[in-house]
Structure formats: C-alpha cells, structure tokens
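Students often ask why we bother predicting the structure of a whole assembly rather than each chain alone. The short answer is interfaces. A chain on its own may look different once its partners are present, and contacts between molecules only exist in the joint model. In this exercise we take two input lines together and write out one structure for the complete complex. Read the inputs first and try to guess which parts will touch.
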Amino acid sequence: MIEKYMRIAIEEANKAKDIDEVPIGCVIVKDDTILAKTHNLRESLNSAIAHAEILAIEQACKKLNTWHLYGCDIYITLEPCPMCAGAIMQSRIKNVYFGANNPKGGSYGSNFNLNKIRGLNHYPNVEKHILEEECSNILKEYFKGKRKKLQ
Amino acid sequence: MIEKYMRIAIEEANKAKDIDEVPIGCVIVKDDTILAKTHNLRESLNSAIAHAEILAIEQACKKLNTWHLYGCDIYITLEPCPMCAGAIMQSRIKNVYFGANNPKGGSYGSNFNLNKIRGLNHYPNVEKHILEEECSNILKEYFKGKRKKLQ
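Now the answer. The structure tokens for the assembled complex follow.
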C-alpha cells in the first residue's frame, strides 16, 4: 500500500519534470482515498510556497473543509524542507512517507530533525527510504539534463 | 521605520482578533513600499497553511511575479513557526522583524533557531523584540477573553 501511493507521487514528480520544474511529487491519502495529488510548481506559479507538499495540504484542507488533517498520510518523493515539514506539523498529518533524502534542507534527519524539537503541537510518524532509488533517480536525471544544457 | 511597519502589522493582528482568529499580523515591504499586509486566517479559510506570513509571502510573490523576495523585509507580530520561518528562507527575504516570542514553536530562538541549521539555501537577518509588549498584549488579551468565555 505504501509503495502503491509512492508510485503515484513519482508520477506527479514526472509531471513536474515535463514542465521543467524540479521533479518532486506528493500524495495525501485518508482511509485509502486520495485527497490530493500535486507536484512542485514554484516556477510555474512564481511562488516560493508552491512546493508539492504545501499545494497538497492546501488541496486536502479544501476537500475536508478543515485545517486539521487528522488520520491523513502524506507520500513525498523527497524529504521535506523546513517549510513543508512545518506545514505537515501544522496540519496534524499522521504519517509521513518519503523516498529520497534531501541534503539541502531535509528536515527529518538530513539537515536537522523537526520531530526532535521540543514543545511543538504535533509530531507525525516518519518513514523514509520508500522506493528511494526511483525517487532519487528522477532528481539526478533532471539535474544531469540541466547541467548538459549549460555546457 | 521599523516601528512604523510593525504598527501596521499590529493593525493586521487586530483585524484577525475582530473575526475571532488568533491575532497575528504581518507586513512585507520592499524599498519603502508595502507589498503585502495580512493576518492569520486559519479558521476562516479552513487551511493549515493560512498563517499571516504564508499569505503575505504568497501575495508579495504575486505582486512581484517571482518566487524570490530579494531585498524584502517582513514584519510579524509573533515569532514565526517552523512552517513560516521555512517559507521566509525559501523566499529569500532579507530582514525579519518580529515582536513577541513564541514559546509554542518559535523558530528563531524560542524552540530552536532555523538560522543555526547548516546547509540551507538562505539565512535572513533577524531582529526581535520590536514593539514586543504591544504585540504580546494582543495575544494575551485574546486568550484571556477565550478563557473567560469557557468559564
């Protein structure tokens, strides 16, 4: 089940790649129902907050008509940045599943661990390394292509 | 100048209070021009991400038609949470001015300091204690009123 939803997040990441966005995808699920499927749209929307996770949380809140996503799970191809890990905390998401580690701001172990900060309102359960190689390869291929274009 | 803009952020916080939202206000300024004035709308919009800062960054990006807010300053009545400090980092805002400390997730010194995490893309300059008493009193009065209602 976890891999099934991560494959959908990977499809979303590929949609980002097709429009020349950094390929990161995300899915939010509750009771085996998909509430949101999104990909990074920072360049397309010209918005610093248009990461896949923020867009997904916004969509899921709209769908449930509430700001708290109790009992929801989020699947992300890349370890969230501080903004997105913070949004996951704010929305009370239950489980976080991610694929590739993010050495440039990963907030569940790579640069720091938001779940280790005391006094926050909520601490989701976090599982990493889900289809890690596939998630990581999409990013590697994307940046390899970018560098080739620059040569 | 710093106090002038913080007073506008306080006006925004009061607008939040008037609609029974936790009273937090925010202003984004570039070259002495206000790009965004917002207040917390989490309950009104039923959205976990509808903090004053996220709404302000979204507005400012729209106004400048770009995801990076180089040279912009943000004024906030309360120390930002991890999501909002992360969004400030993502948007490359230059200066952060805030009023009251936030013991429930403050991310520039209270619960942790995002600016001390290595390997991030950007580190804004942060100044605290701006009109601290006024900023803090709005929140205290709000929660006192809430508790009274509950008795």
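Check your guess against this: The two ends of chain A are 42 Å apart (CA to CA).
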